[in-house]
Amino acid sequence: MTKLAAAILASALCAGAQAYDSKRALDNLSYEMTECAVYWGLMTGMPGLTKVEVDVLKKQAETFLTLAYHYTDDDVVHARVVMMTDSMMRKMKHKWSHVAVVASEHAFFCQDLNPVVRLQYWADKQDAPVVTVVKP
Questions:
Q1: Going by C-beta distance under 8 Å and a sequence separation of 6 or more, which residues neighbour residue 26?
Q2: What distances in angstroms separate CA 112 from CA 36, 107, 118, 119, 124, one per listed residue?
Q3: Distance CA 66, CA 105 (A)
């Protein structure tokens, strides 16, 4: 999958001069991978889950975190994990009864997250054009 992702990124970057550079695209992908790793990791602590459900969530968290570390600096990923964990816990008010707040923000995105598709998205992404306003 890594070779395929690199090939998609390379072809996408050649196609548009305004597209994000490869470092920025990979960093953005790493951010999303980290976000989902934290989400899945947090969900492993939800009360009432079976061991099998916890194991599946842990595996998802580990997979996403491994990819996140692969695409950007370790210290950046670590800082993001700390920040995102704190942010999600605050949104939940540190109570599982408020988990819907976090799930509504992350569940569907993380379930559907395909690294190859998202890398293509970030490789094709362009900054908004700069508009200069000229006063008469």
A1: 9, 71, 72, 119, 122
A2: 10, 9, 10, 14, 19
A3: 22
> Tokens standing for 30?
């790493």
Residue 106 burial (CB < 10 Å; 0-12/13-18/19+)? buried
- Asked if residue 34 lies in contact with residue 64, where contact means CB atoms within 8 angstroms, the answer is yes
User: What average pLDDT does range 60-70 have in this prediction?
Assistant: 96
CA distance 47 to 103: 15
Q: pLDDT tens across 78-98, in order?
A: 999 999 999 999 999 999 999
Q: What is the pTM of this model?
A: 0.79
Q: Any idea where the domains of the chain sit in the sequence? A: 2-124
Cα separation, 71 vs 29, whole angstroms: 8
| 4 burial level (CB within 10 Å; 0-12, 13-18, 19+) | exposed
DSSP state of 96: G
